[in-house]
Amino acid sequence: MLQDDLISVAPMMAWTDRHDRFFLRKISKHVRLYTEMVTADAIRFGPRARLLDFDTSEHPLALQLGGSEPRALAEAAQIGEAWGYDEINLNVGCPSDRVQSGKFGAVLMLEPELVARCMSAMIERVKIDVTVKCRIGVDDQDPEQSLFELVRQCREAGVSRFIVHARKAWLQGLSPKENRERPPLDYDIVYRLKAQYPDLAVIINGGVETLDEAAEHLKFVDGVMLGRAAYKTPYILADVDQRFHGEKEAPLSREDILEALIPYAEKLIAQGVPLHALTRHILGLYQGRPGGKLWRRFLSENIRGANINVLKEALAMMRTRQPSYA
Fold it and tell me: What is the pLDDT averaged over residues 162-175?
């Protein structure tokens, strides 16, 4: 089990882009980061630099792929490895209509043989880790059959690490947002999966909101993946390095993180990237802290079309309003 898998941040469409990942890396050195899902064909035929470029500070970093054609996925995985990613992950959990129509995501829970062929093809082409992120089942599937059969076949194909969102996905009748919230969580089945396959690394995902909850899960599985909690309240990651990795150095304060983001923001502006591309990801930095509402309102109202001075003014405002929080 890789130590940088203990705590990870889930791939989230429109959220975990390179700017968000750069920001999160300032909070924790060890948390494992994932890209948004990128389709295999987009990587093969699209603008690779725009899709795949990242800052070297983002390591450890995994590329999540979407697709269901083994050869296409193998080629995309090879490109991802050459680009410098540490892991290739296959999406077998996204329930959106667009994903279903492309025959990838959660709909692949219905075809474990195909998933295993896809994994085998990628494993043959790359040296880095190739992993699966799945649900426990879809629609009327029995998770005791669907999850365990998928894992069994992928294990035989050479997969040794699985990230399991401990909910079913309903392919019809629920929106993607509802699929993240309404199907009941079943953590116990993920624990049983780990107990049945002690040789596999099993990472649990779904509904985890605090590091205390993560620590409880780690009594039964190898890692915990946080999703929306890590995005909406990102500073919860500040305790990861000391708590789970034995780091002695104190984490950066919120204000020091913002100070460290300024050179990055200046570089973005020089490249013609709007500052909002970064600041939209940091609105939750002061969630639950004094001045948090003012922070969000100030950035939301002033950032579009703004220059770097707005970020500097926001930082100065927070330094004067409250003590530094580590």
Answer: 88
Of the residues 94, 118, 134, 154, only one is catalytic, namely 94
Task: State how far the Cα of 283 lies from the Cα of 298, in Å rounded to an integer.
Answer: 10
CA 242 – CA 211 distance, rounded (Å): 12
Last residue of a domain, one of 226, 245, 264: 245
- C-alpha gyration radius of the chain: 20
pLDDT tens-digit series, residues 264-311:
999 999 999 999 999 999 999 999 998 999 999 999 998 877 789 999
Better-scored residue on pLDDT, 20 or 321:
20
CATH number of the domain encompassing residue 195 = 3.20.20.70
Contact at 8 Å (CB) between 108 and 114?
A: yes
Q: Is the distance from CB of 316 to CB of 280 less than 8 angstroms?
A: no
**pTM confidence score:** 0.94
Query: Which residues in 273-306 are b (16+ Cβ under 10 Å) and which e?
Result: eebbbbbbbbbbbbeebeebeebbebbeebbeeb
Percent of the chain with pLDDT over 70: 94
Decide: residue 11, CB within 10 A, 0-12 exposed, 13-18 middle, 19+ buried.
Answer: buried
Sign of CA dihedral 217, 207, 205, 138: positive
237 and 191 inside one domain = yes
Question: Six-digit token pair at 46?
Answer: 């699209």
C-alpha count within 13 angstroms, C-beta hemisphere, residue 267: 8
Q: Which of 53, 57, 28, 27 is nearest to 38 (CA)?
A: 53
d(CA 289, CA 233): 11
134 included as an active-site residue: no
